[in-house]
Specification:
This protein has about 240 residues and is an all-alpha fold. Helices cover about 75% and strands about 0% of the residues.
């Protein structure tokens, strides 16, 4: 149990909870839409069983993702995806949930929740696997704890979380930068860049704290800059579209 005294463990757990909450808001909306036609007596059952099924599938996906990140270039690809997810968090597309079908049958609603969560969980899986990568043998425990803590917040506290994000937009900005931070650290530790004995044709990066922190800072700043540029371009294009 020595790992409980490790600051790295608690830092990674905090990152996983923040990622789950920031990227899980849509999942709460999907759960509400899928169960909206259920009788009141079955609605709670639909939410509980649908969420439980989604959690189990997500844990399995994350376990696979953490294993795959040990292969060359997958951390590199994962880092690029995390940057993209972070930028989308800062400059979101206009998307709706009108295609989520409600059902008056309990099993159909549970199936809808699980399938929709599975489709929407790619960003969470990559981000959580990246956040847990430095926890050594306790990665899986981190993932499970993070999900157990954050899922109830998403399901039952989603409205509060959404209101906090609306009132304090800096929370979303900080979340996007956190994903960029994780992406930077993930990229430089890819085996293709960090293993001096294999893939010797690739550029090798010293695995020092300075390199890792420098890459993390660069990733956070990249997400912030890209997000601001996209938002500024959309704002500049809006008057032109209205005039046209």
């Amino acid at each position: 149990m020595d790992f409980l005294a490790s600051p790295e463990f608690w830092l990674a757990l905090g990152q996983i909870i923040i990622i789950d909450i920031l990227l899980g808001g849509d999942n709460a909306v999907v759960i509400a839409l899928a169960c909206r036609k259920l009788p009141p007596a079955q609605r709670t059952k639909g939410i509980i069983w649908g969420t439980a099924g989604a959690i189990v599938l997500r844990v399995i996906l994350i376990a696979f993702a953490m294993t795959l990140l040990a292969l060359p270039f997958l951390k590199f690809v994962g880092a690029l995806l995390l940057v993209w997810i972070g930028v989308k968090l800062l400059a979101p597309d206009e998307e709706g949930h009108g295609d989520v079908q409600g059902s008056d049958k309990l099993l159909a609603a549970i199936k809808t929740i699980i399938v929709a969560d599975l489709v929407m969980s790619v960003d969470n899986v990559i981000a959580i696997a990246g956040a847990a990568q430095n926890a050594g043998e306790h990665q899986f425990l981190l993932v499970v704890l993070g999900l157990l803590i954050s899922i109830p917040i998403i399901v039952w506290g989603s409205q509060l979380v959404i209101k906090l994000m609306e009132r304090f937009p800096m929370i979303i900005t900080a979340g996007g930068m956190l994903l960029g931070w994780i992406a930077g650290g993930m990229l430089v530790t890819d085996p293709a860049f960090s293993n001096p004995d294999k893939w010797q044709w690739m550029l090798k990066l010293p695995q020092t704290d300075m390199i890792k922190y420098g890459a993390s800072v660069a990733g956070a700043l990249l997400v912030l800059l890209a997000g601001k540029i996209i938002v500024a371009r959309r704002a500049a294009a809006a008057p032109a579209e209205q005039q046209g």
